[in-house]
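Discussion board: Methods & Data

I've been asked by a reviewer to show the raw model output for two of the constructs in my manuscript, not just the figures. I'm not sure how much to include, so I'm pasting the format here to get opinions. Each protein appears as its amino acid sequence followed by a line of discrete structure tokens. Is this the kind of thing reviewers expect to see in a supplement, or should I convert it first? Here is construct A:
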Amino acid sequence: MRKTVSFLTMLSLLCWAWASTSAEGELTPKPKRLPNIVFILADDHRWDFLGAMGHPFVETPNIDRIAKEGVLFENAFVTSSLCSPSRASFLTGQYPEQHGVKNNFTPWDNANITYFEYLKQAGYHTAFIGKWHMPGAIPRLRGMDLFVTFDHMGGQGAYYNTPYIVNGKALKAGETPVPGAKVNGYITDDLTNFAMQYVEDNQDKPFALYLSHKAVHLSMQPDEEAAGRYDDQEIRLPSEADSWLALADGNFKHFLWSSLEEKIKDYAETATAMDQQIGRLMDKLDELGLAENTLLIYAADNGYMWGEHRLIDKRWAYEESMRVPFVVRYPGAGYRPGQRSSEMILNLDLAPTLLDVAGLKIPGHMQGKSVLPLLQSRESGDQKLPGEFRDAWMYRYFEDFPYPVPAQTALRTQRYKLIDYERGKRDELFDLQSDPREQHNLIDDPAHAAVQARLRQQLQLQQQQAAQTHTRQAPAAVASVE
């Protein structure tokens, strides 16, 4: 039977058309809504433990999907491979010399300006959900509408039964900080539940969500579904490593009482469990019709070494430690899906990128660069030569006792890496083109003396630029969380 249009429906359509018509009789275009922003940060997830990076067994189909539908940055790095300073750099777009969080013991200064303040002023609803993990009391961040975190176990949280804090209010274990979101006890699931409920509750307005996972940090516990998935997987250690390297001098403080092979399996299973939850959040964006107008970024706060250089953990200026996954999906940029970029990008670049996507001016105190032009220029393939976006950058590690890692400053270019140690270890120079695993130190090679001199000059310039004091440009007053 043919359906008829009611008089009231027809009248409402006519009223809409009249209201949308300009004086010249043309329809006035509806203003385009600001893109939503979802930034997902993992803890200690190294760049090559992804299916999209060709890992031989780790299954990450949902992060791989972001890469398939977006752009994968194969050379993404952090300027300090340690949780707290790296996280502060993601938020502020600054080197540790500027934001002041130099290691896991130097406190966050709430005079720091985060990208949330600018987005809030631009009309975004803002949320931070997950692991804060910076020294000092949990701050009252300006420009934040919803702040869900935890201080359990010194801010590390536990994989099971972590009590949450919402906008400064401490809850009991099992209580939800987001009405309507379930708490099942496994932290990766819980944080995802909170994020999904937040997205659903705020789907009618532009939102900026920062979802910060505990996974895949020690103790590397997968959920029940992923546990045991890789039990029968053969693990090949780096040639310089052995099964009980965790008990060797310099590594014992990382508390890996199992063999290296068994802990790598735990790590991989925890990554797969996290990937499953990322898929749930992506499905929610699809279900609500938000994916096309959402900038989705997945990254990690630092990498992780599994026996390379006979080391475990991060902190060092080696590739496995400083290199991170960085995958972007933003259909509004106009790229051809599935592209890969070899440009060097940094955690400093996140904040400027988010402001750029929102159409905001990037303040002068942010030391990173927006990667949006790299997305926009990829519609017909990568026409740029590697290094045009950034030809060199500086890495810093400030000591954090009791970890037996010397303070170090490094310069990383497309081809070379120079590492300057403050004590206890000979400086290192690597040709990453011929020696990607950094096994052959060229610091005393006369044939590379000129290269070393040039790199030291570049490093000195990078240090001077990072240390320059920049006037913080705060947006108009925004409220703190209540």
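Construct B, same format:
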Amino acid sequence: MDTKIMIETLKTHVGYNLPATLAQIKMCNMKLKQNNLPEIPIDFANLLMQCNGFSNDDAEVFGAESKGHNVYRDLVEYNLSFFRHQAASWLVLGKDDMYFLGYDQKKGMYAIIDQDTLEAEFSTESLPEALGYILRVDLND
């Protein structure tokens, strides 16, 4: 799916923030790297430069450097609190009431991960498929 079409579809169905700047993305990646966490995948970083976080009911996709006017959780802060400063091979990009939206850097895959067991329900290379699942929006057009 074309990124522009995906973003327009998301904007019609979910809440979203103003775009992140390149400086915010770089700062986020620097903080992640300093804490031995994976960097933001490029396609997700491109998404954040269009809308810096999303929400739909109890689901949210985190933003980069989400301070001030942004209403969604900061991706770095959430990962640091979740992993308690332990190195991880995957990064939490969002969540709903039951699942995490994760990115497994080693496999180059997005995953929907059960919050209780930390087992992947399914994995995909497709950011639209993973976003659609966690935000409960059909992005398959």
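Answer (T.O., handling editor elsewhere):
This is acceptable in a supplement if you add a one-line summary per construct. For B, something like: The domain at 3-135 is CATH 3.40.1580.10 (SMI1/KNR4-like).
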